[in-house]
Write a structure and sequence with these properties.
This protein is α+β, with helices and mostly antiparallel strands. The protein has one domain: YaeB-like fold (2-Layer Sandwich), CATH 3.30.2310. About 25% of the residues lie in helices and about 25% in strands. Strands 1-3-4-5-6-2 form a six-stranded mixed beta sheet. β5 and β6 form a beta hairpin. α1 runs antiparallel to α3. The longest helix has 13 residues. The protein starts with 8 loop residues before the first strand and ends in a 32-residue tail after the last strand.
């Protein structure tokens, strides 16, 4: 049996608790100067030959298309992050994780890599193989992406 990514909680686009945050994320994605990629995210994109601008644009299209968005509580900071999965950027289905800056109108692009765990699309049956054909084996020593 294939596992799903641990600790991700799906959220509905119209969920009143998260819809304001998702709208703010969408607005910031449209303003690239407001998005700060982490060093890890820059490495992820460089390894795949992708640019920050095309990743931000794809993330915005992901949200506009009401594709799957998940909530994740970060291990180290205990802050909420939002995961877009699968987020289609160029020829790649990526795990894209963003987080709002606590004090400024900024968005952190924390992760933008091929998923490390197999994932299931929302409409997949339990008997169907995961949608992530490119995902590698899960690393049991890690707790999340």
């Amino acid at each position: 049996m294939y596992q799903t990514i641990p600790r991700l909680k799906p959220i509905a686009p119209a969920d009143p608790v998260h819809s304001t945050v998702i709208a703010k994320i969408r607005r910031l994605l449209a303003a690239p100067y407001s998005c700060w990629p982490t060093a890890a995210s820059r490495r992820d994109l460089a390894a795949l030959g992708l640019s920050l601008s095309e990743t931000l644009e794809a993330a915005g299209e992901h949200i506009d298309g009401e594709k799957p968005v998940y909530l994740l509580l970060q291990d180290t900071t205990q802050r909420e992050a939002y995961v877009l999965l699968p987020c289609r950027v160029g020829a790649h289905d990526l795990y894209v994780k963003v987080q709002l800056h606590q004090k400024q109108e900024r968005l952190w692009l924390i992760s933008s890599h091929v998923p490390k765990y197999p994932y299931r699309a929302a409409n997949d049956s339990p008997d169907k193989k995961p949608a992530s054909a490119t995902a590698g084996p899960a690393d049991p020593g890690k707790s999340g992406e």
